[in-house]
Design goal:
The protein has 188 residues and is α+β, with helices and mostly antiparallel strands. It has one domain (2-177): NADH Oxidase, CATH 3.40.109. Helices cover 33% and strands 16% of the residues. It has 7 helices and 5 strands; from the N terminus they run αβαβαβαβαβαα. It has helices at residues 2-8, 22-32, 52-59, 95-112, 125-132, 159-164, 174-177; strands at 15-16, 45-49, 74-80, 116-120, 139-149. Strands 1, 2, 3, 4 and 5 form a 5-stranded antiparallel β-sheet that branches. α2 packs across α4. It is globular, with a radius of gyration of 18 Å. The two termini are 31 Å apart.
């Protein structure tokens, strides 16, 4: 069931390598292509990085707090560009929303395969785009670190990361982010 899958998704940092085949990636990509998108523009773009040499180069772009990622099996670069947006006047850009929905599908599909799919923001944006040959006018939205959850903590994890790894981080209560009928500063 989908609710069980969503509940099992975690952004673990303790990873170990597991082979992922191009066939598995193509299957996932085919399912991701079914994600909703404005005017069916499908603005999401993904680079699935499996090559060990490219992975090692990409790992040099990560912030120190993401050093744990070096045990990943794959990194998925999520990117898009405003020209891929559906053009509706007087509205904010929509392509990031569409890309986010497709990426949620991607993360859940990887979770269903028994993998960890941990999106990160801590990386050198320009250097990463250069390593991956992403054109300058595209937005590199996130890197998703993918691997099998490991029972042992890598040395690269900080003590705080090791401390927080076993338990799901506290989530906001439903009352903190939901409203009925209209926005209100007061919470019920």
């Amino acid at each position: 069931m989908l609710d069980t899958l969503i509940q099992s998704r975690r952004a673990y940092r303790a990873l170990e390598y597991v082979p992922i085949s191009p066939e598995e990636i193509k299957k996932i990509a085919k399912l991701v292509s079914l994600s909703p998108s404005c005017m069916n523009n499908q603005p999401w773009r993904y680079i699935f990085v499996l090559d060990p040499e490219t992975l090692q180069t990409l790992f040099t772009c990560l912030n120190r707090g993401n050093a744990w990622a070096k045990n990943a099996s794959m990194v998925v670069a999520v990117f898009s560009e405003t020209s891929l947006d559906c053009q509706i006047s007087n509205r904010d850009p929509y392509f990031l929303f569409d890309t986010g929905m497709a990426t949620a599908y991607l993360i859940l599909l990887l979770t269903e395969m028994g993998l960890v799919a941990h999106p990160i923001a801590g990386f050198d944006l320009e250097k990463s785009k250069e390593v991956l040959n992403i054109p300058k006018d595209y937005s590199l939205i996130t890197l998703i670190i993918v691997g099998k959850h490991a029972s042992e903590y890598p040395d690269e994890m900080s003590e705080k990361q090791k401390e927080t790894e076993p338990n799901r981080p506290k989530r906001k209560s439903v009352e903190e982010f939901t409203f009925f009928n209209r926005y209100s500063e007061e919470k019920s």
